[in-house]
Write a structure and sequence with these properties.
This protein is mainly beta. The chain contains 5 helices and 35 strands. The chain has a 22-stranded antiparallel β-barrel. A 5-stranded mixed beta sheet has the order 3-8-9-6-7. The protein has a two-stranded antiparallel ribbon with strand order 1-2. It starts with a helix and ends with a strand. Its main location: membrane.
C-alpha cells in the first residue's frame, strides 16, 4: 500500500500546484470575482453571501450538472471535497453518501423542503441509489454539525435539493431523452409557469436499464440486475395579498430494482432475482406572512416510503414489506435588529416504522433560535441554540457558533464549532429481531477552520475539520443486535479545493480530501471511508457550439471490516453540442479506461459505458 499511497500524495501535490499556477496566470487578467453567489441553507432561509458565511457550503447549479452529464446524483457529489460514497451495485441499489467520513445516518437530506430520510431504514437515512440529476435545479451542501439548526441527525451536514423552478415569465417546457450502454433509456419532461403573482413547476422522469450484476462480475457473477423508476415532482407558490404567500411542493416516486442474494457476500444465487421495490410520497405546504416587524412562515409536511424485499433466502421464498412515515409541523419567524438578524422557530415531528411483526415511533418537539450578527463590513458571526424534547430520551440541547471574517476583500477566514445528537432510530429501538430498547442517543462535537482566497475568477479553499461522536451505535455481530460502542469515535482531516479558468475557454477544478478516522472500542479506521480522495475536472469550449468535460477521480486507503480495499482511478468524458439556442445533443462516456473497482466489498461497478442524449427547453 505504500507505493500507491505515495502516488496519491504526489498526485495531490501536482493537482494543487497546477491549480495554484492557473490562479497565478489568470489573476492579473481577471476582474473582481462576482460575489452574487448566495446560500439560503447555511442560515436557515436567510440569503447569505457565500464569502461572508462561517460555514462550509457547496452550491451546485443546474448548469454544473449538465456539464458533468452524470446520471446518478451521488456520483456527481463525490467530485466535491469531503464527499464520498459506497454502493451495492448500479443504478437503484443501496448507495450511502458520506460527508467528512460520517455516513448517511448523520446527514439531513431535503427535497424542496421535505425531509426525505427514511424512517423505516435500520438507521434513519436517505438512500441516494435511485435519485438522478434529472429535474434538479440547485443543490446546497452544508458541511459540519447542523443539529442546532436542522434538528437531530444532522451531525455531519445537510444536503438541500431544489427541483426545477420557473425562471422566465410565461409558460416554459423542456424535454430530455437518452439511450446507452446496458440498454439504458431515460426520458424526462418539465413544465413551468411564472406569472405576476405566482409560479409553478412540474417534472416527470422515467429511467430503465438492464444493468450489470450487483454481485461483481469479476467474481464470476454474470447475471445482469435491472432497474426501473418513475418520478413526478411539483412545486409552486401564489401571492394571495401583498403580505401573504402560500405554496407547496409534492413528489411521487416508484422504483423496482433487481438485487442479488447475500451469503457471506453478494452472489447471483437462485434465479429469478431478489427484488427491491419502493414507493415514496412527499408533501409540503406553507404560508408566509410578511407584515410588521416579524416575517412568519407556517409549514406542514408528510413523507411516506413503502419498501418490499422479496425473493429467496436459503432456498425459501420470502417477502419483507416495511413502511416508514413522518409528519411535521413547523413555524419560523425572522426579524431585523440593529446589529443582527434574529431567526427563531419551533417544530414537532413524528417518525414511525412498521414491518412484519414490528412497529414503533418517536416524537420530537424542538425550539430553536439563531442570531446572525453583522459586526461591520468584515465580520459575521452566527450563533444557534436548540432544545429538543424526545419522547423516549427527554431533553437534549445543542448549539453552534460560526465566524466569517474578511480581513481583505479577496480573503475569507472561517471557524465553526457545533454540537449534535442522533437518537436511535425506531428500528434500532423496536425491531424484535435486531432492536435494543436500552440504547441511548449518540452525541457529537464538530470543529472546523477554513480559508478561502479569491484572485480574479479563481478560488482556492482549505479547511481543517474534526468530528467526535460519543456512544456510537453499531450492529454487533456477536449479539445479532444493535449496541452502544463505549467511548468516542472520531473523523478528522483536511479539504483542499481550487477552481480557475486556465484560458478564456478552459476551466479547471480540483479537490483533495484526506480523512483519518478511528472507531471507539476497536481502534480501527472506520469502514469505507477513503484516506485519500482526489477529484480533478477540466471543461473546455472547443468551439462556440461544442463543449467538453473530463473528470478524474482517485480513491485510496479504503478499508472494510475484513481488510483493505484496492485503490482505484476512474475517468469520465462528456461532450455537448448546441444545435440551437434551445436544443443540444450530448455524448457521455463513463469509466473511460474500463477500470475494475469496488466501492463496497463484493459489489460490482460499471465497465466502460457510453450514452447519447438530446435535451431542449422552449
Amino acid at each position: 500500500m505504500n507505493t500507491p499511497r505515495l502516488a496519491v500524495l504526489r498526485a495531490a501535490t501536482a493537482m494543487t500546484t497546477l491549480a495554484l499556477c492557473g490562479i497565478a496566470q489568470v489573476a492579473s487578467a481577471q476582474d473582481a470575482l462576482d460575489l452574487d453567489a448566495i446560500t439560503v441553507t447555511a442560515n436557515r432561509g436567510e440569503a447569505t453571501d457565500l464569502t461572508r458565511t462561517g460555514s462550509s457550503v457547496a452550491v451546485i447549479t443546474q448548469e454544473d450538472l449538465k456539464n458533468s452529464g452524470t446520471t446518478r446524483l451521488a456520483d456527481y457529489l463525490t467530485t466535491l471535497p469531503g464527499l464520498s460514497l459506497s454502493g451495492n451495485g448500479g443504478l437503484g441499489t443501496s448507495t450511502n453518501l458520506r460527508i467528512r467520513g460520517a455516513d448517511g445516518r448523520y446527514i439531513g437530506v431535503y427535497i424542496d423542503g421535505i425531509d426525505v430520510n427514511d424512517p423505516a431504514s435500520t438507521q434513519v437515512s436517505f438512500d441516494f441509489g435511485s435519485l438522478t440529476t434529472q429535474g434538479i435545479s440547485r443543490i446546497e451542501i452544508l458541511k459540519g454539525a447542523q443539529s442546532a439548526l436542522y434538528g437531530a441527525d444532522a451531525i455531519a451536514g445537510v444536503v438541500n435539493i431544489t427541483t426545477n423552478q420557473a425562471t422566465k415569465p410565461g409558460l416554459s417546457q423542456g424535454y430530455a431523452a437518452e439511450y446507452g450502454s446496458y440498454n439504458t433509456a431515460k426520458l424526462a419532461y418539465n413544465l413551468s409557469y411564472l406569472g405576476a403573482r405566482g409560479s409553478f413547476a412540474a417534472t416527470l422522469s422515467h429511467v430503465r436499464t438492464d444493468g450489470f450484476s450487483v454481485a461483481d462480475e469479476n467474481d464470476g457473477n454474470t447475471e445482469a440486475d435491472g432497474h426501473e423508476a418513475t418520478r413526478l415532482s411539483f412545486s409552486g407558490d401564489y401571492e394571495l395579498t401583498e403580505t401573504v404567500t402560500i405554496g407547496g411542493a409534492a413528489f411521487w416516486a416508484t422504483a423496482e430494482t433487481e438485487v442479488d442474494e447475500y451469503s457471506g457476500g453478494p452472489t447471483d444465487g437462485l434465479i429469478p432475482d431478489d427484488m427491491s421495490d419502493r414507493d415514496q410520497v412527499g408533501l409540503r405546504a406553507f404560508a408566509r406572512i410578511d407584515a410588521g416587524a416579524i416575517r412568519h412562515e407556517f409549514s406542514a409536511q408528510y413523507y411516506q416510503i413503502d419498501r418490499r424485499f422479496s425473493g429467496t433466502k436459503k432456498g425459501v421464498p420470502y417477502s419483507d414489506p416495511s413502511k416508514g412515515q413522518r409528519w411535521s409541523l413547523a413555524y419560523q419567524g425572522q426579524t431585523e435588529l440593529s446589529v443582527a438578524t434574529l431567526t427563531f422557530g419551533a417544530d414537532a415531528t413524528r417518525e414511525a416504522f412498521r414491518n412484519t411483526g414490528d412497529d414503533g415511533r418517536n416524537d420530537i418537539f424542538g425550539l430553536w433560535a439563531q442570531s446572525d450578527w453583522h459586526l461591520g463590513d468584515q465580520l459575521e458571526m452566527v450563533t444557534v441554540l436548540r432544545h429538543d424534547d424526545h419522547s423516549t430520551f427527554g431533553g437534549k440541547t445543542t448549539g453552534r457558533v460560526s465566524l466569517g471574517w474578511l480581513p481583505q476583500p479577496d480573503l475569507t477566514l472561517r471557524a465553526a464549532i457545533g454540537t449534535g445528537f442522533r437518537a436511535p432510530s425506531p428500528y434500532e429501538l423496536y425491531s424484535s429481531t435486531y432492536g435494543n430498547p436500552d440504547l441511548s442517543p449518540e452525541t457529537s462535537t464538530s470543529y472546523e477552520l477554513g480559508v478561502e482566497k479569491r484572485l480574479g475568477e479563481s478560488r482556492l479553499n482549505a479547511t481543517l475539520f474534526r468530528t467526535e461522536i460519543t456512544d456510537l451505535i453499531a450492529y454487533d455481530r456477536t449479539t445479532s443486535a444493535y449496541d452502544q460502542t463505549t467511548g468516542t469515535s472520531w473523523m478528522q482531516g483536511v479539504e483542499l479545493s481550487a477552481e480557475t479558468p486556465l484560458t478564456e475557454r478552459i476551466g479547471l477544478t480540483a479537490a483533495y480530501t484526506w480523512t483519518d478516522s478511528q472507531e471507539a472500542g476497536t481502534g480501527k479506521r472506520l469502514a469505507r471511508v477513503p484516506l485519500h480522495d482526489i477529484a480533478l475536472g477540466l471543461t473546455a469550449e472547443v468551439t462556440p457550439d461544442l463543449t467538453s468535460a473530463l473528470t478524474l477521480r482517485h480513491v485510496a486507503g479504503v478499508t472494510e471490516k475484513t481488510g483493505d480495499m484496492p485503490d482505484y482511478t476512474t475517468v469520465d468524458l462528456s461532450l455537448r453540442y448546441a444545435l440551437s439556442t434551445q436544443t443540444e445533443v450530448y455524448l457521455r462516456v463513463e469509466n473511460l479506461f474500463d477500470e475494475e473497482y469496488q466501492t463496497s466489498l463484493g459489489y460490482g461497478t460499471s465497465d466502460r459505458a457510453a450514452y447519447f442524449g438530446v435535451r431542449s427547453n422552449f
